[in-house]
Amino acid sequence: MRDFDEFAAAATQPLLRLGWLLTGDADQAQDLAQNTLIRTYGAWHRVRHDDALSYARRIMVNLHTDWLRRRPWREQPRADLPDTGGGPGGRHGGHDGGHGAVEDRAALVAALQSLTRRERAAIVLRYYVDLSEQQTAQTLGVSVGTVKSVCSRALAKLRVSPALREERLFVRTAQGEPS
Hints:
Blueprint lengths: L1 H22 L2 H17 L9 H23 L26 H13 L3 H12 L4 H8 L3 H16 L2 H6 L1 H6 L5
Helix pairs in contact: 1-2, 1-3, 2-3, 5-6, 5-7, 6-7
Pfam families: Sigma70_r2, Sigma70_r4
Organism: Dactylosporangium cerinum
Family: Belongs to the sigma-70 factor family. ECF subfamily.
């Protein structure tokens, strides 16, 4: 299964970043990415290889949803966030350059965690993974109209989020400044 090995090597970092944004925790993101690759491998004979990453994203969102349903029985959330240096994959970098990037990331994760599971998944897929409305709808298994309304509600919540308002992260991001 050389083609799956190549897919897994290329997809690991994007899946880790998506998992980190969904969970807000690097260790949980690794578990989620690993389980996603395991499930994708099990279905590899059914997967369209030109669309394998989309298939894996859908699995990840479903696994995350399942995990959230079981969460109260397994783990308790922490009130403090450790300084993780930017999450997996180094996309955000470990050095904040004196501009408060670590605080911005913590505020963003806190704001994302305040959204419902569906809102968080829609926002992450639509704006972080940069999927179109159609691709997001397909990944989530909903209509395009649902994606539009869910994203609209979620963005409205993020605009008034105390965590983002304090850090002014949402304003900077919306104006196109680096976060």
